Amino acid sequence: MKAVAVAAFKEHPVVMDLPKPAVRPGTVLVKVIAAGINPFDWKMTDGIMNDGKIPHQFPLIMGVDGAGIVEEVGAGVTRFKTGDQIYGQFIHMPIGEGSYAEYAIVPETASVTQTPASISAIAAAAVPTAGMTAQQLLETLALPAGATLLVNGATGGVGSFVTQLAAAQQLQVIATVGDEAAAARMKGLGAAYTINYQQAPLLQQVQDLFPQGIDGLIDLVSDAAGFNSYVALVKPGGAAATTVFVADEAVLAAKNIRGGNFETKGSAASLEQLSQAIDKGSLKVPVENEIRLEEAPEAIAHSREGKGRGKTVIVIN
């Protein structure tokens, strides 16, 4: 089978011809239809998971998010049967049996569930990590209806889901954008305000709009200095979170601001909540780019450089 993999940590990913995996007890063999690209995917090939001490194997096939059809079930599997369409986070131990491949092994205990009936496998592959991250960020901030929430990095996959879910909770979302097309898209997803960071410093623009401060901050892109500067916009008693792990949580506590560094905890239950919202029509899946497996190394390079726009999905089968 074809797969995007690395031969060692920190090496450039390439398309390889690798053996089709054999199903094991407690797992299912999935014919992968599509895989979603996330920054965590290349961070994993850099050895982010405990500096490579977590069990792994080479060639290390990349990819966490995937969607496909169950081709075979292993002994003891009860949640799924052959022919089921499933999606979710395929990541498991050993690291290296990822979703950027024509076939993948997935434990039935992984964060996977039935694909939403109303969307394609390609759209479903864009949901798991970004959707659960957005969902759990908002649960962590726990802002009341009517609160103002600045989403920095709003136009990416996580930001697009955050904006929709927050708007559904009657939060006033302030979405950062880089151009008018992005502003129109974010308004369509429920943003109450958009701020073009190309026109003037973001901090200044938010202060001008909300001189009394804002209630919440979700920062998906800033370094430590940037995050700390935007935290100054948040009122005491408010909440701020970063997915880049640059928060000084002692500083937040001193300012009576909840939140801090945020890490997603995947689960089938969280996915099923997202599936319900998708099938009800209250959550749109933002797929900006569909690429082939052969194009994945270039897309990963763009993600590393911060040049990726929107949610990119690899269409495999």
From TrEMBL:
UniProtKB keywords: NADP, Oxidoreductase
One Pfam family of this chain: ADH_N
Residue intervals of the Enoyl reductase (ER) domain: 2-314
UniProt key word Iron-sulfur: no
Keyword Transmembrane among UniProt keywords: no
UniProt superkingdom: Bacteria
UniProt xrefs under CDD domains: MDR_like_2
Listed InterPro entries: ADH-like_C, ADH-like_N, ER, GroES-like_sf, NAD(P)-bd_dom_sf
Name under which the protein is recorded: NADP-dependent oxidoreductase
Organism for this UniProt entry: Chitinophaga nivalis
UniProt lineage: Bacteria, Pseudomonadati, Bacteroidota, Chitinophagia, Chitinophagales
